[in-house]
């Protein structure tokens, strides 16, 4: 029997989001219905609402979530009702060219639920990133459910489903930060702070936080930054070089997504160092760099897609490290809110007041 639950939809471009009744079909083959316990508010949800991702309104927002599997469809063996899971947007296919070459974290053909959730009048909803978890329940592909230790708080676990994983993964997976490395992180919001946490976890010797907002730099310190640079008042390239013996950092993580900060990352890096772009640019942005500098400075210029994470490998590991007190993911939860507060949370996000607002059920 299809179920009726409450969920937050974005009805149209730049229209306020609102709570509506959502119809959840029974899970079909390869699908699961998950009872959501917590779901973080991410920039991507705001981008959906603004029509910046695509035009397939109405969207069922929310994609940074944890909950309990309620029911599974035919042929599902990886999870069962009662499992505590984090939802991921990288349910790997096992058969695309990336998966076949043993690089499933790049999977080019990830799974989502085949059936659509709808409004009461039958209007089909587009779930954000194939998840749609600002809702009491949601329908996903079973591969989107990653089992983790149920002892962790859901509002903390859910954050690994997107932003925090993107940042930690930018450091440990894409940037391959190692013991003794110097790292600079440009942009210290939720993603940049997570990159700082990841860098510390990996054993970085020096972690330089760069931001234009002193409040963000203060938080960055509590996350593990050893040095901070306000790039509104100080040239960040010069500052990073000064702090690294005149050379630049081994790894620079760009967590803003703008040409000028990418350029800073490019030049704040030591010879043969690595730049990781985890901030997401907009379509009109362009980058110009002397090609001789690209050649002459060597190293690697990489993008980090969702922290190049493999959910089945990374989510349980990071939950365990959090439970052991070796990383503090709870520090990313600024406030918990109700389902009706998402519009307000977008406002706070815009003001830069929060790392994460998390809807709890
Ligand atoms: N130089 C340095 N820092 C900057 C600059 C700049 N020119 N412009 C903005 N910032 C800082 C902000 O002060 C803020 O601390 O970047 C940070 C951005 O943080 P958030 O807005 O909280 O965004 P976050 O969730 O961390 O995501 C960052 O990653 O996944 C992508 O789409 C996401 O592009 C976004 C980026
Ligand atoms: Zn694949
Ligand atoms: Zn997200």
TrEMBL record:
Residues covered by the Enoyl reductase (ER) domain: 12-359
Top-rank taxon: Bacteria
Lineage of the species this protein comes from: Bacteria, Bacillati, Actinomycetota, Actinomycetes, Kitasatosporales
Enzyme class (EC, first level): oxidoreductase
UniProt keyword annotations, A-Z: Metal-binding, Oxidoreductase, Zinc
EC number(s) reported in the record: 1.1.1.306
Record family assignment: Belongs to the zinc-containing alcohol dehydrogenase family.
Names of required cofactors: Zn(2+)
Matches recorded under CDD domains: Zn_ADH_class_III
GO molecular function per UniProt: mycothiol-dependent formaldehyde dehydrogenase activity
Pfam families for this protein: ADH_N (PF08240), ADH_zinc_N (PF00107)
Keyword Protein transport tagged: no
Name listed for the protein in its UniProt record: S-(Hydroxymethyl)mycothiol dehydrogenase
SMART domains assigned: PKS_ER
């Amino acid at each position: 029997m299809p179920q009726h639950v409450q969920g937050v939809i974005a009805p149209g471009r730049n229209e306020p989001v609102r709570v509506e009744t959502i119809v959840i079909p029974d899970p079909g083959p390869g699908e699961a219905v998950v009872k959501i316990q917590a779901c973080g508010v991410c920039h991507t949800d705001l981008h959906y609402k603004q029509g910046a991702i695509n035009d397939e309104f109405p969207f069922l927002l929310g994609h940074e979530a944890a909950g309990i599997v309620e029911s599974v469809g035919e042929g599902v063996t990886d999870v069962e009702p009662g499992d505590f899971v984090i939802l991921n947007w990288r349910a790997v296919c096992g058969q695309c060219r990336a998966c076949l070459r043993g690089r499933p974290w790049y999977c080019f053909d990830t799974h989502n639920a085949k059936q659509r959730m709808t409004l009461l009048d039958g209007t089909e909803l587009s779930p954000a990133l194939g998840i749609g978890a600002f809702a009491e329940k949601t329908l996903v592909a079973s591969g989107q459910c990653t089992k983790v230790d149920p002892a962790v708080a859901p509002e903390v676990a859910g954050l690994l489903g997107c932003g925090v994983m993107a940042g930690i993964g930018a450091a440990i997976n894409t940037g391959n930060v190692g013991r003794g490395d110097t790292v600079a992180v440009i942009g210290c919001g939720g993603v940049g702070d997570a990159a700082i946490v990841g860098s510390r976890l990996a054993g970085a010797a020096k972690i330089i936080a760069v931001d234009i907002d002193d409040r963000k730099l203060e938080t960055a310190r509590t996350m593990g930054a050893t040095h901070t640079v306000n790039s509104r008042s100080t040239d960040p390239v010069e500052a990073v070089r000064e702090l690294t013996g005149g050379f630049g950092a081994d790894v620079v993580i760009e967590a803003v997504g703008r040409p000028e900060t990418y350029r800073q990352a490019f030049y704040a890096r030591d010879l043969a160092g690595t730049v990781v772009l985890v901030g997401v640019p907009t379509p009109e942005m362009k980058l110009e760099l002397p090609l001789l500098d690209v050649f002459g400075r060597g190293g690697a210029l990489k993008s980090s897609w969702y922290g190049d994470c493999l959910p089945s490998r990374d989510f349980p590991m990071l939950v365990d490290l959090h439970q052991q007190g070796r990383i503090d993911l709870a520090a990313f939860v600024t406030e918990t809110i109700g389902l009706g507060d998402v519009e307000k949370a977008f406002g706070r996000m815009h003001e830069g007041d929060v790392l994460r607002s998390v809807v709890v059920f």
